[in-house]
Write a structure and sequence with these properties.
83% helix
């Protein structure tokens, strides 16, 4: 059942037409990179905290 729901969700979201302008695509890519940097920084902070707890 879960596989059906997942595949249906993936199908419906992948079929959307995106009509983003190049500027919107660049903005979205920059936001994605920023999010990934934040996640990486949080992981590093967690590792430092873990190491200092020992």
């Amino acid at each position: 059942m879960c596989a059906l729901v997942f595949s249906l969700g993936a199908f419906t979201t992948s079929c959307k037409e995106k009509k983003d302008t190049p500027a919107e695509q660049v903005e979205e890519a920059a936001e994605d990179v920023g999010d990934e940097i934040e996640e990486g920084a949080e992981e590093v902070e967690d590792e430092i905290d873990d190491m200092s707890d020992k």
